[in-house]
Amino acid sequence: MRPRALVIVPLLLAACIVIPVRVKTVKSFAVGAAQDAIINAAIDQLHEDGKTEVGRLRVVGLSPEAFVSKSEATRVVNDVRSKLLEQFRGPQYAGIHADLANGLDTEVNRFQLRYAKESVPKRSVFSVVDSMMSFARELFRRPDKRISFYVTSNPTGATFEICPQYLNQGCFPLTTDGLVDRLVRGYYTYRIQLAGYKPVAYNIDLVPFSRKKLRCILQPQDSRQLAGPCTPE
Hints:
2 domains; five-stranded mixed β-sheet; four-stranded antiparallel β-sheet
């Protein structure tokens, strides 16, 4: 009986051996979350400013419900619309410009058509301001207004920075290789640097961009070859 036990034990030990498997991890940089924070803070401020302006509208008439002049209400509503459009006129928001303008125009027109008299309920002015802000928030959340792509460099470990086109503010840095996650579609400039290699800086249009990767090949400082743009793949 003992010889059989000696045969079984090695087989059981062999079954328990764990072979390590190397899994490639992808660094994800929360660019989308960082942009969301900037966008939401701006909309929050505009929303508060808009409600303050509505609150200042002078009540007219003796109705139990507060009514305000339609012309003054329309002026405030159009002012809120203009400020929203101006806030998000930057090149990094190029992918939402047209939809934002059209959606806000729809809200303003709906408000104007709803009330034919010379005075309107003050609550309705608050309501249209709320609707415009909600529309802007939802527009930025739409998946088709965002783009995610993987950035690689040869060699790796380079600093990749993507900024609104022609601007030096609102930039997002990462270290290659990594995933740029949920960037708002727009016009950008990317820069990539690594000690001992030529810096790279080019514009990129991410409004129609549909590739999944941006591959960057860096040239040594002493190389005669020019530093070319990264290649979409």
